[in-house]
Design a protein that fits this description.
53% helix, two-stranded antiparallel ribbon, 12% strand, alpha+beta, Arc Repressor Mutant, subunit A
């Protein structure tokens, strides 16, 4: 039993810190964080749900760097920091929850799902490449 447990712990456990470290290079293309814990989105032409996801991802990095005490974000903070109306933020958050990309952590608080970071970053990067006329050739 101990051998299996060791394999599970070593090979299957999704660790928040390792996920953030694994996707650091890709994430830094889209977000930045200040020492005050503020998140800067570098992808301003992205959809509202992409911006919300990136903001929550930035909060996770800010918390990991000890620039922020919390990585859960409320709707008013998203409205204020992203500069989007609540009528845009609410459906974006719902879309992300419905697609299991973020989770509700408390009354009106949201955070990323670590197991979905790669999926979402790949989608955002793929859209950016299409908009810039870059695409992968087959073969």
């Amino acid at each position: 039993m101990t051998e299996l447990k060791d394999r599970i712990l070593g090979e299957m456990v999704v660790d928040r810190r390792s996920v953030l470290d694994q996707h650091f290079d890709q994430a830094k293309e889209f977000i930045g964080v200040t020492k005050e814990g503020l998140v800067q989105i570098k992808l301003r032409k992205g959809s509202a749900h992409e911006q919300v996801f990136l903001y929550l991802l930035g909060k996770a990095y800010a918390k990991e760097a000890e620039f922020s005490e919390n990585d859960s974000v409320a709707i008013p903070e998203l409205v204020r920091e992203l500069g989007l109306p609540r009528g845009t933020i609410d459906p974006a958050v719902k879309h992300l929850i419905d697609n299991h990309l973020i989770r509700k952590t408390g009354r009106g608080l949201y955070r990323i799902r670590e197991d979905k970071v790669q999926e979402m970053l790949n989608k955002i990067n793929g859209r950016r490449n299409l908009k810039n006329g870059r695409h992968k050739s087959k073969g």
